[in-house]
Amino acid sequence: MGGRKVRIDRSKMGSPGRPPVLHQAQRRPFWQAIANGRSSEEAAQIAGVSQAVGTRWFRECGGMPPSHLSPSSPVATGRYLSLAEREEIAVLRVLGSGVREIARQLKRAASTISRELRRNASTRSGCFEYRATAAQWHADRATRRPKSAKLATNVALRRYVQDRLAGKVATPAGKIIAGPEVAWNGRRHGPRQHRRWSRAWSPEQIAHRLPIDFPDDPSMRISHEAIYQSLYIQGRGALRRELTACLRTGRALRVPRERTRGRGKSFVTPEILISERPAAVDDRAIPGHWEGDLILGLNSSAIGTLVERTTRFTMLLHLPPLPEHRRQPRAKNGPALAGHGAEAVRDAITRAMGSLPEQLRRSLTWDQGAEMSQHAQLTIDAGLEVYFCDPRSPWQRGTNENTNGLLRQYFPKGTDLSAHGPTELQAIALTLNTRPRKTLGWHTPAEAFNEVLLSIDQRSVATTG
Asked: Are 162 and 30 part of one and the same domain?
């Protein structure tokens, strides 16, 4: 060759073009934060991008990270070289370090460094030079799923899945019933809204039905997770995103598991669960232990109920909506306007308990509703120790549940409870409290409660005397 310069035809080599502004290495902290239960805004701040970018990433991927960006992927676990390591390789290469020296400093195998330098050389300058950005671009492209989604290539399978998921509802005679027309707006359906009618098989039902319908055709197989990914992740092809409206939940985005575990119950700590309630409460021998709940009605109306465990004495809490209710939208993080928010319930219980002696204000057991998020202040104001039932365990407040069933005779479901004022609630409470009860030996709750009050007065008089 005699020192002749070799001219490189760059037009035939295929340049990767301008490297992306954010590599996958910058996106992984975002998805790691999402997996830890953080919001999109918080995850974006951790990743060092704007909130708009974080929200766009979250929606583009349907709420869940792609496989190559998952926190559990081989790249994220350190099996492959990171962008920081590639930048270190580029610097050491410019300084003249050899392959083994670079491998020693990065604590990698020499073959890994040699392969990295050979495969990821930039050709923009006309010669083979290692550039970290170009190498990362090649690595990011290589980690993407190399083959098309199964639903995108198998037409018969896609038609089967789509028909079971979003097929039309029909009569036994085969007549199609259209149902209400609902335009898909990219978000989950709101409360009390019409939904699209469809066959609405779940992805799990579809996946497990395929071997029964096609026992001899192995190509007609797919996992339910693959169906979910085709629905939620843009770019997977096959199923349109709007078909998520046919799922039972109707979610337009998947919800990370960690985000749901701590949702809405941060005020319930282990030391105030019902398992920590004194054992003396269970045998009902000592009065002053109450159970409480809300009964809900139309237009977000509610009535609070308090029942004393020993005497079955009932008190009803008037929870009228605030004047601003339905007149203006609720301010974000502002007080609830429907009348049964945490502040309103706390104040109503405090007023109801204020007229009772201290011996009848021992404890209150409630379910894990958000209306009791200010239980600590209620303990200070009313002198009640508050305990919470386990999730989905209404039987742990059996006395209150039974009373709520009796109250439904006067306040049926689906009616507007805000139409009843304090006078009406007092009359209904009096009706229940003057009704004989078998568990009280056919005495009334009012009579049993009066006996307790008289015994308290006699003990206080004896103590004073």
From this structure: no
